[in-house]
Amino acid sequence: xxxxxxxxxxxxxxxxxxxxxxxxxxxxxxxxxxxxxxxxxxxxxxxxxxxxxxxxxxxxxxxxxxxxxxxxxxxxxxxxxxxxxxxxxxxxxxxxxxxxxxxxxxxxxxxxxxxxxxxxxxxxxxxxxxxxxxxxxxxxxxxxxxxxxxxxxxxxxxxxxxxxxxxxxxxxxxxxxxxxxxxxxxxxxxxxxxxxxxxxxxxxxxxxxxxxxxxxxxxxxxxxxxxxxxxxxxxxxxxxxxxxxxxxxxxxxxxxxxxxxxxxxxxxxxxxxxxxxxxxxxxxxxxxxxxxxxxxxxxxxxxxxxxxxxxxxxxxxxxxxxxxxxxxxxxxxxxxxxxxxxxxxxxxxxxxxxxxxxxxxxxxxxxxxxxxxxxxxxxxxxxxxxxxxxxxxxxxxxxxxxxxxxxxxxxxxxxxxxxxxxxxxxxxxxxxxxxxxxxxxxxxxxxxxxxxxxxxxxxxxxxxxxxxxxxxxxxxxxxxxxxxxxxxxxxxxxxxxxxxxx
Length: 502
Prior knowledge:
The chain is mostly helical and 502 residues long. The protein is 73% helix and 1% strand. α1 packs across α15 (357-378) and α6 runs antiparallel to α15.
C-alpha cells in the first residue's frame, strides 16, 4: 500500500497545469517527430535535451516520458501508412499494418495501433509501480552467457519467422552482423573493415541503415516496380477511425499476448523493443496458420498489428522502470535520458527513490497520463493521419526522400553519411527485388555488438572455457526453447512442402 500512497502523491504533483502541459507537448512532439523517417523518439529526446536546461527536473522528465511513448506511436504511424517505420521497433507493425492501409483500412489500423500502445504501456506502468524490486532482482541474474543466448535466440527467431526461406533469412542476418562489426574494436582498438577510411572508424549508424533499408529502399522499389504494377490505382483511406465489436474482439487476444511478451524485455538490455515486437508478430503468425481461415496475407491481419504494438509499448514502460530503479538503459532513448539525469546531478537507481521521491513518483504518474493523452489525441486523428495516403505518389516519394536525408544529416552533419544512405538504400532496393527479408539484417546489426561483447566477456571470465556458454538455468531454458522452436518451424515447413507436393 506504500506504493499506492506514493503514487497518489505523484499524481498530485503531475496533475498541475504546467506538468499536464508538458505531458501534452511531449506526446505531440514525440508523435510528430516519430512520423518523420529517421527521426524517432531517441532523436526527439536528444534534440530536446539542451532545451530542457531552463526547466526544473520534474517538468523536463515528464516531457521526455511523453516524447518516449509518443515517438513509438509516430514510428508505427509511418510504418503503417507508408511502410517507412522511424525505428527498428516499428518494423514488425509494418508487415500487416501496411497491408491493411493498402487495402483501404488505414484508419482502423491506426486505431488498432493506438489502443495496443495504450494497453501495453498502461499495464507495464502498473507493473513498474508495484514490481520494480522483483524485476530488479531478475535482471541481476543475467550475465554474459545469458545475454549471448538471448541474442542467438533473437537471431534464430527473426530469421525463421519473417521469411519462408531460411537461407535468405540467414544471409540477411549475416549481412547485418557484418555491418555491426565495422569500426574500431572496443577491446583491441584495431580498425575492422574500415578500408582505412576515417569516416568508418565509429562504425555505421543504425539510424542510417534503418532509414536507408526500410525507407529509401522502399521508395526506390515503389517508384520503379510497384508503381508500374499498380498503375492507376490510388490508395484511399476509407471507413471509420474506430473498431467494431468484431474487430475489437479479434484484436483483444493479440493485445494481451503482445503485452505479456513485451514485459520481460523491458528489464533486459537486448535491443529495447525490437526483439519483443518481432516475437509477438511471429507468435501471431504461427497461431494464424492453425486457423481454418488464416488472416495473414495480402489484406492484412489485425492481430499481426495489435501484438507488436502492445509488445513495443509494454517493453518501453518496463524499460523506464529499469532506468529509474537500476540506472540501466535498455534502449537508445533510455540512454539519452540517463545522460539527462546526470546533467541534473541525479543518478538513477535505488537511491533515487530515497533522495528524489517527488520526481520519481511524479514521473511514474505521468506515464499513466501520457497513455491517456496519446489515446485521446491519436484515436480522433486516425483518419487525419490516414489521409497522408492521398498524397500523389511522386510528391510522396520525393517527400520521404527529403525527410530521410534531413533526418540523417541532422543526426551526423556528415555528407559521407548521406552518400552511405544512398548506397545502402540501393542495397535495400535489391533485397526487395530478390525477396530477401529486411528484418534479420536490422536485428543482426542491433544485437551484433551485444552478442560479441557477451561472448568475449563470458570466455574471458572462464579463461576460455566454452562450457560456460551452456551453463545456468536461464541459458539452458533459452536454448531449449530455441531448439523446440526450430524443430516446430522445420516440422511446419516439411508439412507444408509435403502438402503442396500432394
